[in-house]
Amino acid sequence: MYWYKLFPLDVWLFRDAKPFSPGERVWATGSFPPSGHSIAGALRGLMKNNERFAKEDKPIFQIVGPFLCRHNTLYFSSPKGFSGTDPLFPLPWHEEHPLHQSMWNSERPFPLVPRSPLSSPEENSAPERQKAEVNYRQYLPSPVIEQYLKSGKIAPEDWLAADESEVQPWKSEVRPHYGIASGKIGSTENNGCFVEKAIRLIEGWTLAIGIDRKFPSPTTLKLGGEGHRAIIEQCDELKPQWDSLQKLCQKNLANKDKSLAYLVTPGVFERKRNGGKAMCRSWPWEWKLANMGEGDRAKGCLVALATDKPMPISCRLRDKNNNKSIPAPQVFAAPPGSLYYLNKPSLLPADQTQPQKQVSRQTRRWRQLGYSEMLWVPFA
Fold it and tell me: How far apart (Å, rounded) are the C-alpha atoms in residues 308 and 186?
C-alpha cells in the first residue's frame, strides 16, 4: 500500500444519495468525509490522463480509507460505544447490573448499559458536564487508537479536544445555485434555485488514503462536484501507523475471547432477500445474534452494537442499452465509529484470505473501494 494526502485547493462539494429537484428550491445535502466511490472516481480520472495507466481499460485498485489527517497523523471516527468518556457494556457482560430486570425485544441485539447505575438527572444537566461534552474529540489520532487496540480502553484525557478543530475538522458553507434566464434578470422557471453545502477543511487538516498503486506525486486531480481540484502527495509516514494497527488486529483475532469490532469506514452490509430486493442493515448478515439460538439453531456471536443513523450512498452506472450514465440503486451504510460486541472474533468472508464460501462480486467491489474496514479490539 502507498499512502497519500489530499490537500484541497478550494472548497469541496460532495452530494449524498438523496434525490432532489433543482426546480423545487431544495437543499442538495452532502456528507464528509467523501465515500469510496468519490475517491475511486477521482483516481480513475487521474489514471486516464496519465500515460502509465493509459492502456488499462478498466483500472482496478484497492483503497484503504479515506481518513482525516493532521500533522502526518491518521485520525479515525471516535467509537460510539461510549457515554461521554465512560464505556458502555452489553447487558449479558455485566451480570451485576440492576437493569437485568428490565425487558427488551429478544429478537434484537442486547441493550448497552453504563458501567455503573444511571446517574441522576441533576448530574446529567450540570453546566460543567454539558460544557465538557462539547469539547470531546469526534476524531481520535492513531496513537490513541493504537492504545485502544492494545488495552481495550481509552483514557478520559484522550477524549478532550486540544482545539475546536478536533471536534469537527471542517466548516460548512452554503452555496446557492441559480439557472439564469438568457437576457433576463432572475432564474429560469425550469431550473429555479437549489442550495448546496460546501466543505472547507480547517487549516492543517487533509484527507489520507491508502492505494495499492503508485501515482505521480505531487499532482492534481478533480475531486467532488463542480470540478474542484485537490493535490495528491505521497506521505510515507502514514504507512507505519496503519501497519501497526493491522498487526494489533491480527493479534486480537487470535484471541478467541470477547472482542469488539470497530468500524473505521462506512459499513455496507447488503443482502438480496426473497423477490430480489436488496436489504441493508446496521450489522453484517453473516453475524447471527447471540440471543437467537433457540431449538436446534446454534447461537450466533453478535451480542450488541452501538451505531448511529445510516448514511445514504449511491454511485452511477452505465445503462446497457444506450451506455448513458444513470443513478445506481442507493444503499444505506453504517457510519464510521460503529462498535460491534461479539462473544468471539468473526472475520467476514470478504476479509478472509481463503473464503470458506463464495463472496459475491458486489461485496468484493465494496471492499475494494474501502468500505466496511474494521479494527479488532479486546474486551476490557
Answer: 41
